[in-house]
Amino acid sequence: MNQFVAILITVFFLGLIIYFTVTHKLKDRYAFLWLVTAVAGVLAAACIPLLNRFAVWLGIAYMPTFVFLVTIIFILALLVRQTISLSKQSDRIKTLTQEFAVMEKSLLELHQTVKGREAP
User: Fold this and answer.
1) What are the sequence ranges of the domains in the chain?
2) CA atoms within 13 A on the CB side of 114
3) What are the Cα distances from residue 81, in Å, to 77, 94, 103, 112?
4) How many CB atoms lie within 10 A of CB 26?
5) Would you say 98 and 82 are in contact if contact means Cβ atoms under 8 Å apart?
6) Taking all residues of the chain, what is their mean pLDDT, rounded to a whole number?
7) For residues 46 and 3, is the Cβ–Cβ distance under 8 A?
8) pLDDT digits (tens, 9 = 90+) for 7-30
9) Where are the transmembrane segments (predicted)?
């Protein structure tokens, strides 16, 4: 029964990711990562006895501990990836702001030059 509930929840998550991708709420560059994650979740839920044997083989007596360990490592990797992306976006915003300021100054100087020529 627990395996059925796990499969049901992960299939729902997969459907939600597909819905967000189709409605363009989730950008394509992140959609693939989340689709792979959802499919891995469905496979893991379908293979709970196999995961249990694998955890014992690794020396982990309680299989949910193994699942939480893998999940925490995945979340940390995702956070690092998002932090790198955020840093790149911050640098891009800084560069765009500086370029905008230079262009605005040039435009004001050009506008003043044109006004100076029209004055006599």
Assistant:
1) 2-91
2) 6
3) 6, 20, 33, 47
4) 19
5) no
6) 89
7) yes
8) 899 899 999 999 998 998 888 778
9) 6-23, 30-51, 57-80
If phi over 0 gives left and psi between -120 and 50 gives alpha, with beta otherwise, what is residue 62?
beta
Please state, in angstroms and rounded to a whole number, the distance separating the CA atoms of residues 31 and 67: 23
Q: Which two tokens stand for residue 84?
A: 């790198």
Q: Please identify which residue in the block is written with the tokens 């911050």.
A: 90
Question: Which amino acid is located at 80 in the chain?
Answer: V
- Residue 72, sorted as left (phi over 0), alpha (psi -120 to 50) or beta, turns out to be alpha
Residue 119 predicted with pLDDT over 70: no
Give, in order, the Cα–Cα distances in Å from 31 to each of 12, 24, 41, 85, 106. Answer: 16, 10, 15, 15, 41
What is the token pair recorded at 98? 């500086």
One-letter amino acid at 50 equals L
Q: Are 63 and 52 in contact (CB under 8 A)?
A: yes
